[in-house]
Amino acid sequence: MNRSRVWLICAIAILLAGFAVYMETDEEPVVSAGPVSGEAKPKVGYTAPVFELPDLNDQAIRVGGTGDKLVLINFWASWCGPCVMEAPDLQELHEAYGDKVTIVGVNATKFDREREARQFVDEYEFTFPVLMDRKGMVTELYRVSEFPTSLLVDRMGIVRERVTGVIPSSKWRTLIDKWS
């Protein structure tokens, strides 16, 4: 075997190994502790995509379109520190504003462990629907790359607010009152 052939085989092997490592690397989303501005889709003022995901009992739940209440869609993960900080506020908002807003938690299960997500829901005693995005399709559809990310959608299905990071529950109350 000549020398150039050995180099070619080595180069191909290195490329294949690098590609294999790249394909196996899970891209971790970024966690954000505060609001972040910038272009994100779906954008405020545009229709929120309709989606369907299983809840904790594997029952399919459809979210989106028009309805009689606002919808607050919250994307979270159990390992996310800011998500832990806002969890009690979400439950409090659900209890206080359930007549004005439907809160839906979307666990980014592709980036989380389902067992930990279920423990998180139990620990914070969520009584609002929690959906499991096991393949990450809805997280991707909504262009969520930081947790938590929340969208407030009006009765016509239009995104009115998009928040990345944690905001005080008083700010959520103001936004819910503004759009209800």
TrEMBL record:
<dbReference type="Pfam" id="PF00578">
    <property type="entry name" value="AhpC-TSA"/>
</dbReference>
<dbReference type="GO" id="GO:0017004">
    <property type="term" value="P:cytochrome complex assembly"/>
</dbReference>
<keyword id="KW-0201">Cytochrome c-type biogenesis</keyword>
<keyword id="KW-1015">Disulfide bond</keyword>
<feature type="domain" description="Thioredoxin">
    <location>
        <begin position="42"/>
        <end position="180"/>
    </location>
</feature>
<dbReference type="InterPro" id="IPR036249">
    <property type="entry name" value="Thioredoxin-like_sf"/>
</dbReference>
<dbReference type="InterPro" id="IPR017937">
    <property type="entry name" value="Thioredoxin_CS"/>
</dbReference>
<dbReference type="GO" id="GO:0016491">
    <property type="term" value="F:oxidoreductase activity"/>
</dbReference>
<protein>
    <submittedName>
        <fullName>TlpA family protein disulfide reductase</fullName>
    </submittedName>
</protein>
<dbReference type="GO" id="GO:0030313">
    <property type="term" value="C:cell envelope"/>
</dbReference>
<keyword id="KW-0812">Transmembrane</keyword>
<dbReference type="InterPro" id="IPR013766">
    <property type="entry name" value="Thioredoxin_domain"/>
</dbReference>
<dbReference type="InterPro" id="IPR000866">
    <property type="entry name" value="AhpC/TSA"/>
</dbReference>
<dbReference type="InterPro" id="IPR050553">
    <property type="entry name" value="Thioredoxin_ResA/DsbE_sf"/>
</dbReference>
<keyword id="KW-0735">Signal-anchor</keyword>
<keyword id="KW-0676">Redox-active center</keyword>
<dbReference type="GO" id="GO:0016209">
    <property type="term" value="F:antioxidant activity"/>
</dbReference>
